[in-house]
Design goal:
191 residues; alpha+beta; five-stranded mixed β-barrel; elongated
């Protein structure tokens, strides 16, 4: 889930920029420091949006810069347990597919995609069903539910998010549309 949150943090202004301690300069320094960082309380900082207040600078012994506390708004992404998300397949491997959901990827394990057996087709980088000829490949849009999450604040790329698409209304968008059309057809023919 994306949220706009009000945060406070301290940022170092290097000596060469001390004449330019403006909201714009502080915003750029905060962006360099925080964007892409994962925090357990607010999630992943996607962007520093606006600086509201810059405190008095503090000089620390043996440090060349001046440290300023700033209050600012940031756009964050914080995936919630049981949240339904739309994403795109970014990689297919023999044990499942990685789905890009915001700034992180979630794993859609092969056992959580379908009740049908899906075989890994390495040549075409896809998972394919032998029964229905359904395939899942890089670039496909999917809808899934977050069922597990383990956030690594030190290295956000090592965070683990587990997904499922086995519930009604979840799965590859093309499959969902085909099911809707099938139900619509059955309703109009009375079957």
């Amino acid at each position: 889930m994306y949220k706009r949150v009000r945060l406070r943090d301290t940022v170092e202004v290097p000596p060469e920029h001390l004449a330019d301690v403006t909201p714009g300069r502080i915003k750029r320094l905060l962006q360099d420091k925080l964007e892409g960082r994962m925090d357990e309380d607010v999630g992943s900082v996607v962007s520093v949006v606006e600086v509201h207040d810059i405190g008095e600078g503090a000089v620390l012994p043996n440090e060349p810069g001046v440290y300023y506390e700033a209050e600012f708004d940031a756009l964050t992404f914080d995936p919630q347990m049981q949240e339904v998300v739309d994403g795109e397949i970014v990689e297919v491997v023999n044990f499942g597919a990685f789905v890009g959901i915001g700034p992180v990827d979630g794993l859609l394990h092969v056992s959580q995609i379908s009740d049908e057996y899906l075989a890994y087709d390495e040549d075409n980088q896809q998972l394919a069903s032998r029964d229905s000829n359904d395939t899942l490949t890089v670039g496909d849009a999917v809808r899934a539910r977050i069922v597990t999450k383990s956030i690594d604040e030190r290295n956000p790329r090592d965070s683990k998010i587990g997904l499922t698409a086995k519930q009604v209304g979840l799965g590859k968008h093309g499959w969902l549309e085909a099911k809707r059309q099938e139900r619509k057809s059955e309703a109009t023919t009375g079957e």
